[in-house]
Request: fold
Amino acid sequence: MKKKRISITDIAYALHVTPSTVSRALNGGGKVSEKKRLEIIALAKELGYRPNPIAKSLLENKTHTIGLIIPEFTHHFYSRMLAGIESVTSKAGYQLLICTSNENQNQEIKSTLTLLDARVDGILATISKMNDKFEHLQEVLDSGTPLVLVDRFSEEIETPYVISDDFKGAFSAVEYLCQNGCRNILHIKGPDNLSTTFNRFMGYKEALRKHEIELNEHLILEGSDPDLFEKITSCMKNHPLDGAFTYSDYLAFEIYKVASELKIPIPEQLSVIGYADEPISTYINPTLSTVNQQPFEMGVLGAKYLLNRIHDPTIAMETSRVETKLILRESCRNLNN
Amino acid sequence: MKKKRISITDIAYALHVTPSTVSRALNGGGKVSEKKRLEIIALAKELGYRPNPIAKSLLENKTHTIGLIIPEFTHHFYSRMLAGIESVTSKAGYQLLICTSNENQNQEIKSTLTLLDARVDGILATISKMNDKFEHLQEVLDSGTPLVLVDRFSEEIETPYVISDDFKGAFSAVEYLCQNGCRNILHIKGPDNLSTTFNRFMGYKEALRKHEIELNEHLILEGSDPDLFEKITSCMKNHPLDGAFTYSDYLAFEIYKVASELKIPIPEQLSVIGYADEPISTYINPTLSTVNQQPFEMGVLGAKYLLNRIHDPTIAMETSRVETKLILRESCRNLNN
DNA sequence: ATTGCTTGGTCAAACGTTTGACCAACATTC
DNA sequence: GAATGTTGGTCAAACGTTTGACCAAGCAAT
Reply:
């Protein structure tokens, strides 16, 4: 029941000229008298003519659409990233075609195929957690479709990427703890196989090394451990903990729970720093110090890199490790005041 | 630099048949010998042929794409709604084209035009807050493009919609407070001009009326008041408050802050219920009772209505007022246990 | 009068696909 | 031997747009 939109040929017919002339009048390609040009433009306006981008796409082999593959929408990080992406693509006149992978590799592969089928001009992807296959991404590259990876990347796939500087982010957090008197710092790690988990852990280790604190294996826990609460509890009981750095703000909250149970005051006896600057960090008590990854900016950058690549595929690969910001709130002791 | 994808004519040429034959072989339209059919299918597979949906769109005047206009991504409500929408559209084989309005009417109008230009098969929209013009939406309808409004709607525009039952949601929350001994219940209202603000307020009033509690104007505050904290404080000091119902979880948190300042224990002395079931509600202390609006389900429903309309535009208009769920957590007294 | 240039157009192909109309070859029926 | 039906195809139009090639008319220069 969709109404037929008026086309260039309709205008041509009405004015007894050919579609070519109408096209040139509307796009300013010359070869049309001033009088006809005005006539055509007037009629086009009157009839509410709007060019059909589908026809143009077919001809130009371009869709002015970019595809996005994102694990999910609900984490604050991704919605901010999405907002950043949207802000630049919409300004550049590009449409955004969105697919979710649900952190599921098969769905990611399917989404990739869908976007390729849709002939998007480029793809922006955050690869899913448990990714061990990369053929589908290689296929994107092979097809000549520009690809930019955001947030997570793999060395297996040679393409521009924008990631957060997890190492430095973790390092700055743990160094702050060290500088403010912490010597026994717990770390709760993130999901296995994720470069972010690894890099944050490395940042933790490096900060300890720099401040000549020996690494204590007992102070390192796995966030995915089903007995995490008990593990934290026994860790707190058996070690003179004075600091904690966790892979996420949610894991930091687990520490809050145990500390509350054991009546260990934060920050007086235990300084805590989380990661990601989720909204909850300003609402829990005490407010949580954390590491902000600037997801909006990451999205902006990723989208820009992609557009650059679309406009000139021979351009040198642009990659960024986005700086993090240490956000200090009530959960940390500060020796200086 | 995008590689040319292999087309139906390439296959036709290689096999010395016409494109028509290839098309029929691939789509099973008969008129092709079994032998040729298998040959064609084999070659298509070998060459990695994938049909070009752009060409099909041009022919069919359908894009298998639905447009989404959403105010923003960062509120949990919208990201859940988006997830719900995506879950049904992707299953139905539809692409999702996303635009944000940033709660800005001009941008909403622009987005609408963009989607119409893109020839989407239907539009799903959450109209922006300060909406007083509806011509653009009427234009969508006039163009014959199915439109479904989600979360917010206007009587000016006659189309299917899915909204949350704010009245009942508020009513159930306030009634719960009444049933559990509260007689002096504070209400903090939402933004002006929003039907949700009005309806939640009406629900509040109706619950009081039903439980024969007289409405006290002094117990009703504006969430947008810059001196909200002070207003709440003086309200708590001057009235024997025993309950509070707020337009949002964030406003409920303001009450937490004041209560903490005044050393009023929640829920022992004051029961609090928020609205929206934002993630923070399970992380603040005590955990916050709230009203869940089932945004995921709203998205699912909206998308389904739209798809139904796309498949049969003459179908009767489907609208829903989605039930809310009262989520009881630690912030409310319960007389029964 | 011939050549050459400019202006203002038209024509046709192209993009990839589908589909109704047509058609030749062959088999069947009377 | 003529009419009819079936099988396995081809042809061309259509969707809306752009664009290179062509062309006629008018004019100026030789």
In short: Residues 17-18, 20-21, 24, 30-33, 36, 55, 57-61 of chain A lie near DNA strand C (CB under 10 Å from a C1'). Chain A has a mean pLDDT of 95. The first helix of chain A runs from residue 8 to 14. Chain A touches chain B through 52 residues (CB under 8 Å).
